[in-house]
Amino acid sequence: PPRSTLFPYTTLFRSIGFPILYQPFDSFDYPGFLSFYKQLAGAIHAAGMKMVVESGVVFPGVFSTGSGLDVADYYLSLGQQQYIAGRAQQILTIAREIQPDYLVIAEEPDTEAELTGQSYIATVPGFSSMVDTFLSQLNSAGFTGTNVGAGIGTWINGAQGYVNALAAKSRLNFIDLHVYPIDRSFLIDTVTLIDLAESAGKSVTISEAWLQKRRDAEYNG
Question: Which of 1, 35, 40, 105 gives 20 to 30 Å between its CA and that of 16?
């Protein structure tokens, strides 16, 4: 496990993907979902647990089949500024209405870029700029005490560049990692990223670590 961690043992994670709580997205039940998440947060805190929310994006395709969501077409309808503004608004809604103890505002830039068509997110400058916008919006709205994190999947090309960019953000309380493959050098790379973040004074968390049953030969590149 990471040597410096914020998440206590009595913690419940919840992913709230964009645009479920973005009110202009009118293809889903915004009031119903907002009410559900607020009740869930209340139940978590009443049980003496902490709540961690990852605010990424809803996966389209087979992951959303039968849900009534049409996020693939919706993502394609958004320009860069519209997309970032929408993501920022949902993050503010989560902070204001749900009030999680820890809020991960961006994760897996390569995955988000692929799912949404917003290719700039899969670059260090693009991802860093988007995170800056989210942090600025949170600060401007007065959520200066919210524990905020952002991070990457440890498999991403140029991972150290992303971690360096995030570590330079004083408002960011922690850097979060997703760990899936541990073949080849991935596990050692994960330790290197933890060391890099900690050397910059950032706490490190791992909010996702799932087993992938693949041989080395099954990985491309």
Answer: 1
Whole-model pTM: value is 0.90
For 107, residues 6+ apart whose C-beta sits below 8 A from its C-beta are 54, 56, 150, 151, 152, 153, 176, 178, 207
Task: Please enumerate in sequence order all residues whose Cβ is within 8 A of that of 73, keeping only pairs 6 or more positions apart, or say none.
Answer: none
pLDDT digits (tens, 9 = 90+) for 78-110: 999 999 999 999 999 999 999 999 999 999 999
Q: Which residues of 106-141 are buried (b: 16+ CB within 10 A; e: fewer)?
A: bbbbbbbbebbebeebbbbebbbebbebbbebbeee
Alpha-carbon distance of 90 to 22, in angstroms, equals 5
pLDDT digits (tens, 9 = 90+) for 155-187: 999 999 999 999 999 999 999 999 988 888 889
Angle between helices 124-140 and 159-167 (to 10 degrees): 30
Task: For residue 20, give both structure tokens.
Answer: 């479920």
